[in-house]
Amino acid sequence: MRERGHRVLIACDPEGELYERARGTGFPVHALPFGGLIQNFKSWQDLRRISVQERVDILNTHSSLDSWAGVLAWRTMKNHPALVRTRHLSTPVRQSWPTRWLYNQPAATITTGVNIADLLHERLGIPQSRLFAIPTGVPLTEFTPRPAPPELRAGLNLPPEAFIFGTLSVLRSWKGHLFALEALKKVAANHNCYLLIVGEGPYRPVIEERLAALNLKPRVRLAGHQERAADWLALMDALVMPSYAHEGVPQAVLQAMAMAKPVVASSIGGIPEAVTPGSTGLLVPPKDADALAQAMTMVLTDEALRNKMAQQGRAKVMQQFSLERMAEQVEAVYDKVAGADLRRLETRKHRLIRRV
């Protein structure tokens, strides 16, 4: 958005990673700490002050606490900006009246997948006209087919002839790593393959315990958190995404497809919006290690299918899921709500003039 000529301001919790990342890339960043009733109350006041001082045109919130702060700030401003909410996860939202009220305040709600938009419409009654499904875009200049840095494979002691399956995510229970391990156990019994797990998170001790129980330590590499995701995806021959909850359209899936990597994934959330079975990847039921193993074996053994999915996957990302495409769609939503807000303001002015 900045490259397209927009002024972008970020207000976020200074304890979060976004705060330092945004500062490091030259964005104006305002500290907006959350935590406890008093602090949260102060945060919405600060957000209101920031929005007025900076003459914000579009206020876009992204999660629960900041949405409450955003709505309260927005409703207490005289000349308020257009309000937009973004919903990233497919987790079902509560159908309570506070949640329904909160979600029905914004002029538009952006979701990262069609399935999330449908859920919000069904559960909270948000009109379809105010719902916009815009998957998170992939920077194609970064995520492009290329060889992996040779030192990565050597450093992990991966045989050059071995087939490398990989996962890329935060290590959480619902990401399904345990099912990937169960599937790998079956596939590795007959094939020379390894599993590369990239990411860090609270579920690592559970994964390590299961590794030991399955005697899979020689076949699995835990790489931890890595900044240069593209380098690690380049090392993989196929991406495995065995999540069983909460997914929109996962970035890792789109990034892998952009790098011409076939994908084996669970048929949940927004994943089927990106992965077309037999065309850009393979889909399996969630929590089904047997089906996952069968799909992994198919990708490993069928080179023609693997190459076909790699080519068609990249083509699909280039056409539908590029960062530029996302920016265009978000910009269109902003233009729409800003125009509608301006028309409401002009109508209000005309009414005041007539009353005078």
Describe the overall structure.
The structure is a single chain. The model is unreliable at about 340-355 (pLDDT under 50). The two termini are about 40 Å apart. The strands form three sheets. This protein has a six-stranded parallel sheet, sandwiched between helices. A four-stranded parallel sheet has the order 3-4-5-6. Strands 1-2 form a two-stranded parallel ribbon. The chain has two domains: about 10-135 and about 320-355, Glycogen Phosphorylase B (Rossmann fold, 3-Layer(aba) Sandwich); about 150-320, Glycogen Phosphorylase B (Rossmann fold, 3-Layer(aba) Sandwich), CATH 3.40.50.2000. About 45% of the residues lie in helices and about 15% in strands. It has helices at about 15-25, 35-55, 65-75, 95-105, 115-125, 150-155, 175-190, 205-215, 230-235, 250-260, 270-275, 290-300, 305-320, 325-355, and strands spanning about 10, 30, 60, 80-85, 110, 130-135, 165-170, 195-200, 220-225, 240, 265, 280-285. It is built from 14 helices and twelve strands. Strand 4, helix 4 (about 95-105) and strand 5 form a beta-alpha-beta unit. Helix 2 (about 35-55) crosses helix 3 (about 65-75), helix 7 crosses helix 12 (about 290-300) and helix 10 (about 250-260) crosses helix 13 (about 305-320). With about 350 residues, it is an alpha/beta fold.
Keywords:
356 residues, alpha/beta, Rossmann fold, 2 domains, 6-stranded parallel sheet, 12 strands, 47% helix, 15% strand, elongated, disordered C terminus
The shape is elongated
Largest sheet: 6 strands, parallel
CATH architecture of the largest domain: 3-Layer(aba) Sandwich
- Count of separate structural domains: 2
Unreliable spans are 342-356
- Beta strand count: 12
CATH fold title of the largest domain? Rossmann fold
Task: Report the CATH superfamily of the largest domain.
Answer: Glycogen Phosphorylase B
Question: Structural class, judged by helices and strands?
Answer: alpha/beta
Report strand %: 5-15%
**CATH level 1 name of the largest domain:** Alpha Beta
What's the gyration radius in Å? 23 Å
Helical content stands at: 40-55%
Give the terminus-to-terminus CA distance.
Answer: 41 Å
Elements, N to C (H/E) = EHEHEHEHEHEHEHEHEHEHEHEHHH
